[in-house]
Each structure stands twice: as C-alpha cells, then as structure tokens.
Specification:
This protein is of the alpha/beta class. Helices cover 36% and strands 29% of the residues. Adenine (ADE) binds next to strand 5, strand 9, strand 10 and helix 6.
Length: 232
C-alpha cells in the first residue's frame, strides 16, 4: 500500500491540503510537526518544512526514512520565468536544479558539484498523472524546469541569470533539494507549483498578495492527483 508524503514549505501551502482531511494524528519530530491521516485507501503524512533547501531536505528525508513514505508530492508556489506562466498558473517539474550552487571558480558549471548532476529528474509516471488530471479537468499546466535556491528572487538581473543559465521556467526555494533526496532514496516525487509572482521588482508585493490563492490552486490540483493515485 502506498504511503504518501505531502510536503509544502510554508504553512499557507499545506493548510488547504489539511482541510481535506479528518482524524489527523500529530507527531512532533526534529522541530517540526508531521500530520498523519488515512484518506480512502492511502496512508498520508503531511508536513511543511519551513523555507529553503536545508529545511526541505530535512523534512523530505524524515518523511521517507522515519515515516516510511514511498512516494512524495510537493505543493506550493513559485516565481514565474516563462512568460506563458501567469500568476495562479500551474507548473509541474520534469527536472530541477540548484541555481545558487556555485563552484565555478574550479571550472565546474553552475549548479554542479562532483558526485551530483546539474539537473535532477522527477518521476515520469507522477508527472504524467498530473498532465492527465489537467487535461481531464481542462486546467492549464506547463511542464518544465524549476530552479531552486536559498534566495527570494525579486530582480531582473538574477532572474535573467537563472533563465539563461538553466533555461528554467520557474524558480522557488525547495524543489531541487526535495528532488535530490527522493532521487538518492529511490522515492518517486512530484514537484507542483502555482505562480505567485514573476520574480521581478514587484515580486515581494505580488507574493504577499497571491501566496494564499496560488497555494490553494496548487493544493486543490494536488488533491485531484491524490484521488487519481488512490483510484489506480
Ligand atoms: N517562491 C515564490 N516566488 C518566489 C521568488 N520570487 N523567489 C524565490 N522563491 C519564490
């Protein structure tokens, strides 16, 4: 039986998901809360990690190693780079990179450290379920590259660097670290985001305005994916 990990980075990203569940068992571990529920035929563990690569790595590894989750689904918001992505739109990652991982001083490409790769792939089957769900419900979604870093990007210079270096469609602060954990531990993962801003001068302002509504867009779509996984 599948045991699903459902992750967000911020409380706003998982609250709309928790509202679908009842009889939640809360476990405190490693300075965080893990919410365990049964949903139809699925065992689910929900948590938000706190922002950034370090906290999201800790939470993803905990959900897999301590809570024995065998599939991980991430839901949250992102800054849009691809001009086709408007605020509220969904993106599902086919691959992710760390835009702030930089040992270029030693001749390596941006995003690369020895023993790793610039890009980490997500699970093809989960991604295709997401695309099918979008198709069936007439919901717009873009499949693309997501760049992750420990920075809230709110200027054109950094945004252009990330766009040109990695051909990224969107950026955020947790996806690649979660995907690296899942790849290393052989756990299929899905990284889903809805756009809250476009990583430009107005990003801080837009993020505050659209965090809740975009987080809900992503969460409501993720529930459809969960229902589909459940019926498989
Ligand atoms: N998540 C949502 N918007 C973001 C931005 N502009 N930079 C980093 N992470 C984000």
């Amino acid at each position: 039986m599948t045991k699903l990990a459902i992750m967000g980075a911020m409380e706003e990203e998982i609250q709309p998901l928790l509202s679908y569940f009842t009889d939640i068992k809360v476990t405190e571990f490693a300075n965080n809360r893990y919410y365990e529920v049964k949903y139809n035929d699925l065992d689910i563990v929900v948590a938000y990690s706190k922002i950034g690569k370090v906290f999201s790595t800790l939470t993803a590894a905990t959900m897999i190693e301590k809570f024995a989750c065998d599939t991980l689904l991430f839901s949250g918001v992102a800054g849009g780079i691809n001009p086709e992505l408007k605020i509220g739109d969904l993106i599902v990652a086919n691959k992710l990179c760390q835009h702030d991982l930089d040992i270029t001083a030693f001749g390596h490409p941006n995003g690369f450290v020895p023993g790793g790769d610039v890009f980490v792939k997500t699970d093809e089957k989960l991604k295709n379920i997401a695309l099918d769900v979008a198709n069936e419900n007439n919901i717009k979604i873009i499949e693309g590259t997501i760049a992750t870093g420990d920075q809230f990007v709110a200027n054109e210079t950094r945004k252009s660097f990330i766009e040109n270096t990695f051909k990224a469609d969107a950026l955020e602060m947790e996806g690649a670290s979660v995907a690296v954990v899942c790849d290393a531990l052989n756990v299929p993962c899905l990284i889903l985001r809805a756009i809250s801003d476009t990583a430009d001068m107005d990003a801080g302002f837009n993020f505050d305005e659209f965090l809740d509504s975009s987080a809900k867009n992503s969460a409501n779509f993720l529930i459809k994916i969960i229902n589909k996984i459940n019926s498989h």
